[in-house]
Amino acid sequence: MGDHDDLRKFIIDLAVVHGRVVLSSGREADWYVDLRRVTLHHQAAPLVGRVLLDLTADWEYDAVGGLTLGADPVALSMLHAASATDRSLDAFVVRKAGKAHGLQRRIEGPDVAGRRVLAVEDTSTTGGSVLTAVEALREAGAEVVGVAVIVDRGAGDAVEAAGLPYRAAYTLADLGLVA
Fold first, then answer.
1. pLDDT value at position 139?
2. Which of 31, 57, 124, 152 has CA atoms 20 to 30 A from the CA of 173?
3. What pLDDT, on the 0 to 100 scale, is given for residue 41?
4. 110 by DSSP, 3-state: which?
5. Distances from the Cα of 29 to the Cαs of 24, 25, 69, 124, 163, in angstroms?
6. Which residues contact 16 (CB under 8 A, 6 or more apart)?
7. Dihedrals phi, psi of 38, to nearest 5 degrees
C-alpha cells in the first residue's frame, strides 16, 4: 500500500465517529470525521503531509496554512514533509480575528504578502472556514493559488464559486460514507 491508501485506512480506523453531531456549519450529521485524531497522530501526520504535497504537486506555492485550528496540523505536516525532500515551504496560521495586543497580526508566521500560498483545511462542509482564511490572506497581500483539504464533505462548489481551484485527497465515498 502507498501513502494515499495508508492515510485512508488511518482516517477510517481513527477519525470516523458514528453518532449524532452538529457540525461547525450548523448542519447535523449521523457521523463525524474527527481528523485531528489523524493529523495529530505520530504515524498518520507524516502521511498527511506527503499526500497533500502529492495532491498539489502541480500548483506553485511557497507557503501553506489556513484558519486555526483545523488547518494548523495539516500545514505543519506539509512543511515537514517538504523539508524531508529539500523543498522550501513555510507554514502560517490565520487567526479567526486579529489580535488586540502585541503585533496585532491576524496571520502568524512568515509574512505572506506578495507570496503564492495554498489554503488548507482538514475537512470542509460549506467552505466557510477556508474561505475566511482566503479573505484574510488576500487582505494581507497573498496570492492564493488554491484550496486543498484532506476530506471533502461538500465544500468544493462554494470554493470554486469563489474563483479558486479546489482539491480533496478523499471524498466521503472514498471513506465508505454517504453525504
1. 95
2. 57
3. 98
4. coil
5. 11, 11, 21, 13, 28
6. 31, 32, 33, 175, 177
7. -105, -50
Q: What dihedral do alpha carbons 2, 67, 62, 99 form, nearest 10°?
A: -150
**Residues 59-110: pLDDT tens digits?**
999 999 999 999 999 999 999 999 999 999 999 999 987 655 555 689 999 9
The reported pLDDT for the residue numbered 144 is 98
Which residues are documented as binding site for orotate?
125, 153
Give the start-to-end residue ranges of the domains of the chain.
Answer: 44-173
Could you confirm whether domain 44-173 is CATH 3.40.470.10?
no
Q: What is the pLDDT of residue 104?
A: 65
Cβ atoms of 120 and 138 closer than 8 Å:
no
Residue with cell 469563489: 162
Q: Which residues contact 21 (CB under 8 A, 6 or more apart)?
A: 28, 29, 31, 32
Residues at the binding site for 5-phospho-alpha-D-ribose 1-diphosphate are 95-96, 99, 101, 121-129
Q: Which amino acid is residue 11, in one-letter code?
A: I
Q: Write out the binding residues.
A: 95-96, 99, 101, 121-129, 153
